[in-house]
Amino acid sequence: MNSIIEIALARSADVPIIADMSRRLVEVGLPWTWTPERVMRHLRHPESMVITARSAGCDTSTLAGFAIMHFGDDIAHLNLLAVDYRHQRLGLGRQLINWLERTAVAAGTFTICLEVRARNPVALLFYRRLGFLETGRVPRYYSGREDALRLMRDLRHPLALPPD
Ligand SMILES: CC(C)(COP(=O)(O)OP(=O)(O)OC[C@H]1O[C@@H](n2cnc3c(N)ncnc32)[C@H](O)[C@@H]1OP(=O)(O)O)[C@@H](O)C(=O)NCCC(=O)NCCS
């Protein structure tokens, strides 16, 4: 897959697609918690941002990836991120994170934190590669069943922000 990717704010029509991708790509083997209703709440929340990535000129019902981030006063929390199988390992996850990091810095928020399934080695490699550091473990964070690792990134670090 080699196409121009456009990153933009999500629209209402994207909500069921994002929820379905969450079920298939993120919550595999766990109860489905990122339902359309929950994604919609984030889309409408004044302190949350839901973004999508699409191949330019592609069918509007197809997403290459998406991310959901909540912006607090001091800390931004990355709730969810996924890249469709066909687009993985092409730098799209990195582009989505970079987009959110630049937005966080513009908003004066310099710390990003997130939780990731302790048994998701690919996501752990990905976040570590992007400069996130492990700060702790949360037992049974996911539906009382599976541990999370908590990760953090300080955007004031000189190497933190990518070039525009
Ligand atoms: C984790 C995920 C978002 C990564 O997205 P991606 O677009 O494939 O990642 P990128 O291509 O931007 O990779 C950036 C770097 O991360 C690391 N990385 C990504 N995928 C990797 C893999 N499968 N194996 C090893 N390292 C990997 C690499 O260092 C890579 O850099 P490189 O390709 O120059 O070596 C994607 O695999 C995904 O959606 N997985 C399922 C959902 C999920 O786990 N989401 C995260 C938790 S919410």
What does this structure look like?
This protein has 164 residues and is an alpha+beta fold. It has a domain at 5-113: Aminopeptidase (3-Layer(aba) Sandwich). It is built from four helices and seven strands. Strands 1-2-3-4-5-7-6 form a seven-stranded mixed β-sheet, sandwiched between helices. Strand 3 (65-71) and strand 4 form a beta hairpin. 27% of the residues are buried. The site of coenzyme A (COA) has 20 residues, from helix 1, strand 4, helix 3 and helix 4.
Write a concise synopsis of the structure shown.
27% of the residues lie in helices and 34% in strands.
Widest beta sheet: strand line-up: 1-2-3-4-5-7-6
- Coarse structural class: alpha+beta
Radius of gyration: 15 Å
Strand residue content: 25-35%
Assembly state here?
Answer: single chain
Number of strands: 7
**Looking at CATH, which topology of the domain at 5-113 would you report?**
Aminopeptidase
User: Which CATH class of the domain at 5-113?
Assistant: Alpha Beta
Q: Which spans of ≥5 residues are poorly predicted at pLDDT below 50?
A: none
Largest sheet: 7 strands, mixed
CATH architecture assignment of the domain at 5-113: 3-Layer(aba) Sandwich
Annotated CATH homologous superfamily of the domain at 5-113:
Gcn5-related N-acetyltransferase (GNAT)
Helix content: 25-40%
Helices and strands, in order, run as EHHEEEHEHEE
Average pLDDT works out at 93
State the distance separating the first and last CA atoms. Answer: 23 Å
